[in-house]
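User: I'm new to structure prediction. If I give you an amino acid sequence, what do you actually give back? Let's try with this one:
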Amino acid sequence: MPASSSTRSNVLTLAALLFAQLLLMSGSVREAGGATLLESWSMRATSPVVAAARFVGGGLRGLGGGIANLLHAHSRNAALQVEVGRLRSELRAAREHSLENERLRRLLGMREELEGRSVAARVVSLVFDKQTKMIVIDRGLSDGVRVDHPAVAWGGAVGRVVEASASHAKVQLITDPNAGAGGVVQRSRVHGMVFGREQDRLVMRFVPLFSDVMHGDRVVTSGLDGIYPRGFGIGTVTRIHTRVDGTQQLELRPELRFATLEEVLVLTDPVGEDRFAPGPGEEPS
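Assistant: Good question. You get back a string of structure tokens that encode the predicted 3D arrangement of the chain. For your 285 residues, that looks like this:
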């Protein structure tokens, strides 16, 4: 038994020495590419691990790049939205200025056409309820504005001054239930009196029964009330009623949109002719 154990030990020692010598030889023997056999075996053994590490590293770099690109795109989109908002605001402001210039240009044209003196005024507030239809303007006694002076806008009668201070005045609109104005059908020259009604409506009363009046006829100021000069637009006939007193009553759609008025012209020495009252879309003659 001792001899057998000694023999096995000698065999294992010899095998270990031979393996070590083989490793030394492989470390010195080089392949065609210049690498030793040991290096080649090591590279082949570790190549799967290296490939996996490269794959994971590349994926992480790609993910990081994608996140960076996404954050950049989000930031760029937010900046573009801010720019679009700014441009929209500038466009709205430019459009508002353009509309205001057009209104003022027309108002100036009316003022130049009128032979009497007039004062341009801005509307600073509105008083609208069932019984009252008024506007407050930024011109008053110091500007020559007096009670009963008429106020007009492009082509249409607005109302008359009922109260004035040094710098402001109240204008009663023709749609006020307590307001009245002489009117005439522009086409047939039929006369009557125009009064305000609720809900910004107008009626023309005291029209003779068999007068030549049609739906769509335009009614303008007649100049017979002593307030409004002749020829400013009041409204358009929408309905015709026969009253029990043997007259006709005409319902009118106002020519102006009083709730959106921004500027008016107060006639401080009112005179007027039909040429001062162009219809919608018309130019003064």
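You can read the tokens as a compact description of the fold. Here is one thing that stands out. Residues 272-285 have pLDDT under 50 and may be disordered.
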